[in-house]
Amino acid sequence: MSAPGPKGFGDRALRGLVRGLPALWLALFFLVPFAVTLKISFSSPATAQPPYLPVIDWQGGLEGWREFLEALDFQNYEMLASDTLYRDAALSSLGYALAATALLVLIGTPMAHAMARAERRFQPLLAALVIVPFWTSFLIRVYAWIAILKPEGLLNAALLRLHLIGEPLQILDTPLAVLIGLTYAYLPFMVLPLYAVMSRLDPALPEAAADLGAGRARIFFTVTLPLAAPGLAAGALLCFIPMVGEFIIPDLLGGSDTLMLGRVLWSEFFSNRDWPLASAVAVLLLVLVVGPVVLFREAEQRREEAAR
């Protein structure tokens, strides 16, 4: 057997590079930071630089490593389990994320369906209109909602002028304002995956269902929606995962009483200077968002196995 030529070796090296770069990127920008965060979460706060103990003594040898490992503890996780503040923050974050995701499904699904059914020449324009908000700073868009929702804002002024209300409504600094902000900010992440899937569906399938006597609603719920389920699941995950750890929207629109893990994490890190407890909150947040991803992967594997 002849030895592989330079071309064959180059192809294998290129394939190895293509496969290795994502793994290297994941290791450098996810696994290493997560390992550092996990280590700090087992530490104790200290008035020092860095503000936690223990710190690895690289010159202490095996004895230094033994002392370092013995100094680590589960105190911060015991605090998370015993203090109702963190439990309530986790439940509140999940509740806001689930409610906003449900609203996004209800709003984004008909939007994506209408875009997919529009004439081909108009579809790029409609997709561009969905993407346009990304051209503006996220912070500026959230501040714009403050101007809309505050008691003397644009929404109350319009409702008063139309004589629909007798006095300004208190919408800002309420859970409703947080849901409005989350729904608005993450709507493109729901619409675009759904549109990408729906625009590739075979138009002959709805036509066949119509020929068999199915109405528009039945065609949508029994043909279009099941076929668009992968896009729906992808859009839901794209929205749900970042919303669980959202900080800016609840801080600006929800007021001081809004309790979410993102705000608790910021408070522990910057206000209390308790880096170990803040790291434990970050690990808890990661666990909460990894769960839906694992469930989605298992559902996708079962769907692929069933399709074979």
Account of the protein in words:
With 308 residues, this protein is mostly helical. The chain is built from 14 helices and two strands. The chain has a two-stranded antiparallel sheet. Strand 1 and strand 2 form a beta hairpin. The longest helix has 36 residues. It is a multi-pass membrane protein.
Spell out the key features of this protein.
single chain; 308 residues; mainly alpha; 2 strands
Q: Short summary of the structure?
A:
With 308 residues, the chain is mostly helical. The chain has helices at residues 6-41, 61-71, 75-82, 84-117, 123-131, 138-149, 154-161, 175-198, 204-211, 216-227, 229-244, 248-253, 261-271, 275-307, and strands at 44-45, 52-53. A hairpin with a 6-residue loop joins strand 1 and strand 2.
Strand order of the largest sheet: 1-2
SSE pattern: HEEHHHHHHHHHHHHH
Structural class: mainly alpha
Q: Determine Rg (CA atoms, Å).
A: 25 Å
- Topology, number of strands: 2
Q: Mean pLDDT, rounded to whole units?
A: 88
Give the biggest sheet: 2 strands, antiparallel
Give the DSSP E fraction (strand runs of 2 or more residues): under 5%
Distance between the termini: 38 Å
Coarse morphology: globular
Subcellular location: Cell membrane
Transmembrane segments: 21-42, 94-113, 125-146, 176-198, 219-244, 275-296
Keywords: Cell membrane, Membrane, Transmembrane, Transmembrane helix, Transport
Main location: membrane
